[in-house]
Amino acid sequence: MKKLIGSLLLKILGWKVVLQGDVNNLDRCILVVAPHTHNMEYILGNLAYWKLGKKLKIIIKDSHTKAWYGSVVRGLGGIGIDRSQKNDLINFVANEFKKEDFSLVITPEGTRSWVPKWRKGFYHMALAAKVPIVLAAGDFKRNTVYLGYQIPYERLETASFAEVMEEIQNYYIKNDIGPKIPANWNPNIMGNDTEEARS
C-alpha cells in the first residue's frame, strides 16, 4: 500500500526518483540528506522510500514517540531519544542497527539555516555501526529526489575524514543540487578549517 501511495503522491506533486546506485544500498545505511533548507525534503524523501519499498528512520525527541500520537510517529520511522540526558548518540545508533536493517536519516547541517560547515556525527555513526554512508538529495530545480550513491564501509575504514568529506562535497557540487531555499545552502561543507577536516 505504501508503494502505491508514495508513487501516486510523487506523481501528483510532479516529482521523480532517480537511483544513483543499487536500490539495495538503501537497506542498511546512514542516509545523509542535503541540502537541508526546508521540511519538504523529509516529506519527499519519505515518499521516495515508500515508492521503493524501503525502511526509513529518523531520530527525534522521545516526547513525540511517547505522546498520544506516538504510534503514528513511530510508524513513520521516528526513533525517540531523550535529548535532555547526555546520551551517547553514536553508540545508540550502532545498537539500533543491531536490531534491524534500515536507512537512518541524518542532516549534517543540523539546521535549516545556513551553516559554515557540517557536523561530524554522521561519519562516526557509520563507523560505529559498520554501515555505509549513502547520499540523498532533493533537487528543487528539477523536481527530483536522488538516492543511492554509496560510500562503502570499507572505504570509511581506510579513507581519512577529509577524503570522505571531499567525496561528499564533490557529489553535491557535481550534481548541481537546487535547494528549496538557496540562501540557506552552503556547498562548502568542510568549511575553512582544513586542519580540523583532516582529523
Number of strands: 7
Q: Can you list the strand order of the major beta sheet?
A: 1-7-6-2-5-3-4
Report, as a whole number of angstroms, the end-to-end distance. Answer: 46 Å
Class from helix and strand fractions = alpha/beta
Low-pLDDT residue spans: 194-199
Supply Rg.
16 Å
Mean pLDDT: 89
Give the fraction of residues assigned to helices.
25-40%
Helix-strand sequence: HEEHEHHEHEHEEHHH
Proportion in β-strands: 15-25%
Annotation field: number of helices: 9
The dominant shape is: globular
- Biggest sheet: strands, sense, closure? 7 strands, mixed
Q: Would you give an account of this structure?
A:
It is a single chain. With 199 residues, the protein is of the alpha/beta class. The chain contains 9 helices and 7 strands, in the order αββαβααβαβαββααα. The chain has helices spanning 2-13, 40-52, 62-65, 70-75, 89-99, 121-129, 153-158, 161-174, 194-197; strands at residues 16-19, 29-33, 56-61, 78-81, 103-106, 133-139, 144-151. It has a 7-stranded mixed β-sheet with strand order 1-7-6-2-5-3-4, sandwiched between helices. Mean pLDDT is 89; it is low at 194-199.
Helix-strand blueprint:
Blueprint: H1 2-13, E1 16-19, E2 29-33, H2 40-52, E3 56-61, H3 62-65, H4 70-75, E4 78-81, H5 89-99, E5 103-106, H6 121-129, E6 133-139, E7 144-151, H7 153-158, H8 161-174, H9 194-197
Parallel strand pairs: 1-7, 2-5, 2-6, 3-4, 3-5
Antiparallel strand pairs: 6-7
Helix pairs in contact: 1-2, 5-6
